[in-house]
Amino acid sequence: MEQLIEIVKENLNLNTSRTLNEAVYDAFRKSIVLGLIPAGTRINEKECATLLNLSRTPIRYAMSQLDSENLVTRVPKKGIVVNGISIRDALEIFEIRKWLDTLAAIKAMERMSDDEFDEMKAIVDEAYYYDENEEIKKVIKNFSEFNNFIYEKSNMIRLTAIVNQFQAYFKYFREISLLSTARRKEAIAEHAMIYRSMRNKDIDQITLITHEHLEHSQQFILSEMEKHHLG
Fold first, then answer.
1. How far apart are the C-alpha atoms of 55 and 149, rounded to whole Å?
2. Is 51 in contact with 63 (CB distance < 8 Å)?
3. pLDDT band, residue 228 (cuts 50/70/90)
4. What pLDDT, in 10s, does the model give residues 184-216?
5. Is the Cβ–Cβ distance between 48 and 5 less than 8 Å?
6. Rounded to 5 degrees, what are φ and ψ at 126?
7. What would the mean pLDDT of 148-166 be, rounded to a whole number?
8. Of 35, 26, 65, nearest to 179 (Cα)?
9. Which pLDDT score is estimated for 231?
């Protein structure tokens, strides 16, 4: 348990505007998603609170959120067990997303009006603006808006439901990669290319750019995971 707590402490950032509950949750989630806390690890809320010198409230909050995202499971007589994610899991998740995002972009392209394409361009332009002003949190939120916009305009309810099953992973992978200045600028440019490909009704280009965009994100995330000899 002490080793687990040391890992969480390394990822616990209290120098932000987030509440203590959110900071503790983010620390556990990052540790689990990056594989620093391996699958099968048991988490004792009371011990965690004691070793982190916290009340049990933020620990309970973190475990509740992680349980809802299927990153941990409450097992009778065992307590909380980490489900975790491996490099193999990450590869599979990115492969699934490449094809889901491509299909959503093509269907959205077919159904969007000129006004909706203008809305999409405005989202891309905002990303450039936020990045230039180093408003990283707003860039991260903008990327979610971009992806959600495409899925909404695809009007494919079941496809969106499938994507929602992986949102916890998508969200955190996105946050990790966009904290890198180089990757963030590259990713914004890739969103701009996806927008242009959709507006030009170029299915081949949509497929190529979407796959390249996610391939680059995948490579970045895997390099982060491999730094800790994971998998």
1. 40
2. no
3. low
4. 999 999 999 999 999 999 999 999 999 999 999
5. yes
6. -65, -40
7. 90
8. 26
9. 43
Q: Is the C-alpha dihedral spanning 87, 164, 32, 189 positive or negative? A: positive
Each residue of 80-116: pLDDT tens digit? 999 877 788 888 989 999 999 999 999 999 999 999 9
Say how many CA atoms lie within 13 Å of 26 toward its Cβ.
Answer: 19
pLDDT of 24 over the 90 cut: yes
Query: Which residue reads 């994100």 in tokens?
Result: 217
- 149 within 8 A of 123, measured Cβ to Cβ: yes
How far apart (Å, rounded) are the C-alpha atoms in residues 26 and 171?
12
User: Distances in Å between the alpha carbon of 44 and those of 36, 37, 50, 51, 150?
Assistant: 17, 13, 10, 11, 41
Cross-strand partners of 80: 43, 74
Distances 158 to 134, 148, 155 between C-alpha atoms, Å = 36, 14, 9
